[in-house]
Write a structure and sequence with these properties.
This protein is an alpha/beta fold. The chain is built from twelve helices and 17 strands. The protein has helices at about 5-15, 20-30, 40-55, 65-70, 130-150, 175-180, 230-245, 295-310, 340-355, 370-375, 390-395, 405-420, and strands at about 60-65, 80-85, 90-100, 115-120, 120-125, 155-165, 190, 200, 205-215, 215-220, 260-270, 275, 280-285, 320-330, 360-365, 380, 400-405. A six-stranded mixed β-sheet has the order 1-2-6-3-7-16. A hairpin with a 2-residue loop joins strand 4 (about 115-120) and strand 5 (about 120-125).
Length: about 425
Amino acid sequence: MTATSNAYAQLDQWIDAHFDEQVKFLQALVQVPTDTPPGNNAPHAEKTTALLSELGYQAEQFPVPEEEVKAYGLTSLTNLIVRRPFGPGGKTIALNAHGDVVPPGEGWTHPPYGAQIENGQMFGRATAVSKCDFSTFTYALRAVEALRDQQHLPLKGNVELHFTYDEEFGGEKGPGWLLDKGHTKPDLMIAAGFSYQVVTAHNGCLQMEVTVHGKMAHAAIPDTGVDALQAAVHILNHLYAQNKLYQAITSKVEGIKHPYLNVGRIEGGTNTNVVPGTVIFKLDRRMIPEENPQEVEANIRQVIAQAVVEFNQGRASDSQVSIDIKRLLMAHAMKPLAGNAPLVNAIQNHGGQIFGEPIPAMGTPLYTDVRLYVEKGIPGVIYGAGPRTVLESHAKRADERLNLEDLRKATKVISRTLLDLLS
């Protein structure tokens, strides 16, 4: 069966008729904080379960054991799956969005968890990434079910909503945990993203924690100590020098340029009048799809080790620094699987019609949960209600926002795509 233009129009009409309800659904999701860290996200899963129940959907709850969550660095974590069967013989399509977010930070002109609407935009943390797609996916699915029931369509396959809560930590206890435990095994998947492009590839990410050990001393007699901060600065200069070298390593994937490195957190010392004995910094190394992750990590470790050797050169043995390096995350790049063509074609077709402009298939410098599905051989793409770009969305910055017309249109694209796949 091939869906008709009349069927697509009916989906669009259902979404328009229920759009105010969808916006309120999203507001309720945004208004429950999910700052990660600390990652106390089970309460949001409870709220989501209750909201879905009001719509007639039963969300299966999969709490990750407390000891695993604590060891992971979070406080509480419950993953959700909603399963909706359409008929035997078809594929199972998963729709994944994550509810965890980075803390709001400073500089907001709207309450970060207020979900206020102004000039057609909703402001708040996770409005664009990616609680918006809790609503996009839910209401797209509802539209398809309403059309099926009204027209008695012979659809086949299944749709699953996967709502998870650890994307900011890498997804290992979210989608990774659900897949490893055998709680789900979809044939295709779509993950939360931006509505103006369908993403088929993304960067990998290596995160590491480096601890520099020196020796504390009174600032009045600094020669009796070993300044760990000076050593850390020396190491950081070596690392930052790598960024210039990375510019020569270019990716062939449209939307991805070259590798880069960022040091996002540094702490150390005990007081202004004390030579710092310990300094800890955390680095983030983005890897393009063409890079080998093991080689990237080996190179970073080598650069740090060489910097330490240089710093210690000529110093007495009791005046040298030492280091510890801990890998925090190794997220592999997402590479396209051949089976993603039905997803890409449907989204580009319907996105072009609804947005009135071509929807490119491209890569993104982000890293996401989708890689965990792809690593299991499940073809996937990234597409959702976010704005045109990460920069435009203010994701991970103050005043994150979502254009509500993007939400409406992306919901229509997803519903039409689901109808194609289930037909």
